Amino acid sequence: MTSKSVAALMFVAVLTACTTNAQRPATTATFSGDPAHPAETAGWVRTELYFGTGPADDANAGVGEAQWREFLDAEVSTRFPDGLSVSDIYGQWRDKGAVKPERLRSKVLILLYPDKPEQRAAIDAIRAAWKKRSGDDSVLRVTQPADVSF
Questions:
Q1: pTM of the predicted model over 0.85
Q2: pLDDT category, 8, cuts 50, 70, 90?
Q3: Looking at domain 44-146, which of 1.10.260.40, 2.30.30.100, 3.30.70.120, 3.40.309.10 is its CATH number?
Q4: What backbone phi and psi angles, to 5 degrees, belong to 33?
């Protein structure tokens, strides 16, 4: 390939790159918050709590929707009044020594909050309250760092 051919190819490549970049809007991710929440984006975590509400094959057994909302109002919303998310899910797990998994109707509670000791204690209190109320042996907890922007 001649030096003129190489130069021509390089010119076409640069021209193509410029055209392609000119068509894309310049965006950058920011986690700086907004005027109402300027410093509330660092040091947050996301916690998911998994609550079994009853056998998957018996809609009348276990905890009903009204009982769940009563628990949510009394135990969760009082500790996390700024917001939360709840999803209905199907879950299963197998106890040690069991041949088949237990299939459950379940709820997953999603909380985003600043990672502080009092918040972690509130999570533990919610889990303890559910176990006491429902008789369940456990409430699965998954906590991970979260980048938050409002």
A1: no
A2: very low
A3: 3.30.70.120
A4: 80, -160
